[in-house]
């Protein structure tokens, strides 16, 4: 597996997706109200970490994240042409090349991170219709996928060759996008949801046969419906789960082939605006996540989802905006800091407990491409080496998210500590040229704190508020709101 080549592949795929997205939808004493006593954590991760450099995992930890995800590309590990005699379910079969993934998993675990592997793509010999791409497979063979998955899960079972245990496994990438999965349609009729149902069911069975305590992540859906190219994530999910109806989802007739087997559902709500921005009826941008949760809850009640949880969790495993700098068409750094903190708050408020940023570091510059077709969404500016990467301003909003909003009843606030640990919090406001403590509170066992300070502050859209924890301060949150505006996630 060539790390740089894989990163470049993802970059160019996202460039094409961007084009589709843009055409598709352009007094110091005060009283505080008690916070919700129920502990609801917010776990953060970083997706698509291509480097297996020790410094990369140190940077993930420095960003306050607990989880790390990378693609396990089937076509890169498996032989280009399968030999006449081999055992594709055997993790020790000499025809497999696991070297770089072994190192990645070992170093992620050694850094104290939870590793997640996304099995994606397919070698040409495992595709059942003509294709020129291994990262956008055409009708992958479910038997071959199950065999490879068995080998991978056995290898990272915690009982093979001293390698760590990988508990979380994701089946394929963005199966509703022609950039990553084909065919999407049979003529004008959707096809990919039905193909994916078979694949994820076989994938689930293979993962659980090795270790029933492992967890399977499905979906990872792209956000926008584009006629003839993608199936909108709401429509794809309804068809996948045999559900119908927009406002009041309910099951279709039949048993949905015995149901759809997975434990966690993943959505990639890349957004052409801010944290409240909504897309079309079948799109899922940040402002649309409530309707996807409603659909999943209805599918749970109907027994369509066969997984480990009564209420299937929704994870966000990819989200970002290109930053300015380095992308001149990206989002201004101060606004990105605000939108990052607001996104984390709104996801937590919706009951979404896992959020991943895409990605760790900016890729190598591609000056031959227009800036609208390059990626610059890393938490770190790219240096000559990973160890020389420098944090961007908004990383600190990802690490120590904090928001505060003036309301008629007082100043509402929310945040999470950088280490997700409990402790004392001081809420401070900028007044008369210095920071003054308005209120003191405590973060819960998950590091989350929220409340209402019954004092007027910020109603005139002036001033800033920050949180102080263990000598660390959050990025000040301005009382001047930032209205939603058009901002493609990968820049103009």
Verbal overview:
- This protein has helices spanning 3-24, 54-62, 74-77, 99-110, 142-155, 192-210, 233-240, 289-301, 333-349, 395-399, and strands at residues 32-33, 43-47, 67-73, 114-120, 168-171, 185-186, 189-190, 215-221, 243-244, 250-251, 260-261, 264-267, 305-306, 314-316, 323-324, 331-332, 354-358, 380-381, 390-391, 402-407, 410-416, 423-431, 434-443, 448-453, 464-469, 472-473, 477-478.
- The protein is of the alpha/beta class.
- It has one domain: Glycosidases (TIM Barrel).
Oligomer: single chain
CATH superfamily: Glycosidases
Question: How would you describe the shape?
Answer: globular
User: Stretches where pLDDT falls below 50 for ≥5 residues?
Assistant: 1-19, 21-37
CATH topology: TIM Barrel
If you compute it from the alpha carbons, what radius of gyration comes out, rounded to the nearest whole angstrom?
23 Å
Strand content: 15-25%
Number of structurally distinct domains:
1
CATH class: Alpha Beta
Number of helices, where a helix is a run of at least 4 consecutive DSSP H or I residues = 10
Please list the strands of the largest sheet in the order they lie side by side: 14-12-8-5-4-3-2-17
Overall SS class: alpha/beta
Helix percentage: 25-40%
Mean pLDDT: 93
What about the largest sheet? 8 strands, parallel
What would CATH call the architecture?
Alpha-Beta Barrel
Q: What's the helix and strand layout?
A:
Blueprint: H1 3-24, E1 32-33, E2 43-47, H2 54-62, E3 67-73, H3 74-77, H4 99-110, E4 114-120, H5 142-155, E5 168-171, E6 185-186, E7 189-190, H6 192-210, E8 215-221, H7 233-240, E9 243-244, E10 250-251, E11 260-261, E12 264-267, H8 289-301, E13 305-306, E14 314-316, E15 323-324, E16 331-332, H9 333-349, E17 354-358, E18 380-381, E19 390-391, H10 395-399, E20 402-407, E21 410-416, E22 423-431, E23 434-443, E24 448-453, E25 464-469, E26 472-473, E27 477-478
Parallel strand pairs: 2-3, 2-17, 3-4, 4-5, 5-8, 8-12, 11-13, 12-14, 15-16
Antiparallel strand pairs: 1-24, 6-7, 9-10, 18-19, 20-21, 21-24, 22-23, 22-25, 25-26, 25-27
Helix pairs in contact: 5-6, 6-7
